[in-house]
Write a structure and sequence with these properties.
413 residues, alpha+beta, Aminopeptidase, 2 domains, 8-stranded mixed beta sheet, 7-stranded mixed beta sheet, 26% strand, globular
């Protein structure tokens, strides 16, 4: 199949709703095109404009990370050739047991010694390689109709590309109504490792500690900050939107944190960090903490609307524990966000224990999964709740909104 191949999505209606579900108001063609071809479309310059990661971010991901992935795009066109929506996706060989328990992983490693490809599968993933997924801009009715068109066409395209498994990757729970059409077509929704969100609409950090945190957490934080302050060498913070002059110094800090993570997906490159500030200078902020002129911590954030998105962190672990750098960095980022008028602080997945005590709330993101063989898909639907990664993280269950990860019901252990 060429990247410009198309198939007709046979969804036509005389009204915006049919049987209680939104559908398209005209025939629409769902095409698959390459990133190179996509950039010739003027519409692409407006795609995802309301999101903190707009079309520029997808172009950057396409150009700078995971060259082994095939980056492609669904384009939804009406009969007049006008583009209604664009949806990025990528094709990769996926380890479908990546989120399994440590015991199962050990067993799989034994099996993979003679059979390295065991439980790897060519997969179509709809969404963003680095970050949560979004649907292209439009009203809720338009988005729901476009999602239904894509649900009708996606399996045909996956088979043409040789992908046996289809995954809608990390869509926020706010899309559950719009994406229910995929569940009706045999997809299984399971939680991915959730993001976290913190309300920082306070006058200053002291007010946040006083009003949001319990006395035990306040006491622990003050001790950590006092210990860092008592160090004879002060820590200085620098903020900019251009990391290129110091990338060789801070990139190893990012790799330190990446290598210590239990779950891996994207591994960012130096080129990614350098170009991000160039193409999105109004949204990107880099934070570098120095001690004795040496970088000991690094943070990359995107700011948009009333939210500060903490994307990636880097630490020098030779001093991180001594100086309590995790909490030191957290305080400085939140202080900066408060001083610049942001109301929310969003952080990435994992490291949930300190976030629980700091009064973050979970921001659930979902996976929608389907195998193209109906027989295998029936088996997979039963296995997925056992394989999904959140099942084995006990800290998640302590968050007050944990039940939102599954919706109205949480599967029993």
């Amino acid at each position: 199949m060429t990247t410009s191949a198309c198939c007709e999505a046979a969804v036509t209606a005389q009204r915006p709703f049919q049987d209680g579900q939104p559908v398209a108001d005209r025939n629409v063609t769902v095409c698959v095109i390459s990133g190179h071809e996509l950039r010739t479309y003027p519409y692409w310059q407006r795609a995802f404009a309301s999101q903190h990661k707009d079309h520029r971010y997808y172009d950057l991901i396409n150009d700078t990370i995971h060259p082994e992935f095939e980056y492609l795009y669904f384009v939804l066109k009406d009969l007049q050739g006008e583009i209604r929506a664009i949806q990025p996706f990528f094709v990769l060989d996926q380890d479908i047991l990546a989120g399994a328990s440590s015991y199962l992983r050990h067993l799989v490693d034994v099996i993979r010694h003679p059979w390295p490809r065991f439980m790897f599968m060519k997969t179509m993933m709809v969404g963003c390689v680095a970050g949560e997924a979004q649907l292209d801009d439009g009203s809720d009715v338009e988005r729901a109709a476009n999602a239904q068109l894509l649900a009708c066409a996606i399996e045909t395209h996956a088979q043409a590309l040789g992908a046996k498994l289809i995954v809608l990757k990390e869509f926020p729970k706010s899309y559950r109504g719009m994406l229910a059409c995929f569940e009706r077509r045999g997809f299984t929704r399971i939680p991915s490792m959730p993001l976290t969100r913190l309300n920082i609409a306070y006058r200053d950090f002291d007010e946040y500690m006083r009003l949001a945190l319990n006395s035990a957490t306040r006491s622990k934080l003050r001790k950590k900050f006092k210990a860092a302050a008592s160090d004879k060498v002060p820590i200085e913070l620098q903020v900019s939107n251009d990391i290129r002059p110091v990338i060789d110094e801070v990139y190893p800090l990012y790799l330190n944190v990446y290598r210590r993570s239990k779950l891996h997906f994207e591994k960012l490159t130096k080129d990614y960090f350098c170009r991000l500030g160039q193409i999105m200078p109004e949204r990107v902020r880099y934070f570098v903490w120095r001690r004795n002129s040496k970088a000991v911590a690094f943070g990359e954030c995107i700011v948009h609307g009333d939210t500060m998105y903490a994307e990636y962190l880097g630490l020098d672990y030779s001093v991180a524990l001594q100086l309590h750098l995790y909490h030191y960095v957290f305080r400085d980022l939140v202080r900066w966000g408060m001083a610049n008028g942001y109301k929310w602080f969003q952080s990435s997945a994992l490291n949930y224990d300190p976030k629980l005590h700091l009064r973050y709330r979970l921001k659930p993101v979902d996976l929608y999964v389907k195998y193209t063989s109906s027989i295998i898909n029936k088996v997979l639907r039963r296995l997925l709740p056992l394989l999904e990664p959140t099942r084995y993280d006990e800290t998640l269950k302590k968050f007050p909104n944990y039940s939102e990860m599954w919706g109205t019901a949480v599967p029993a252990n």
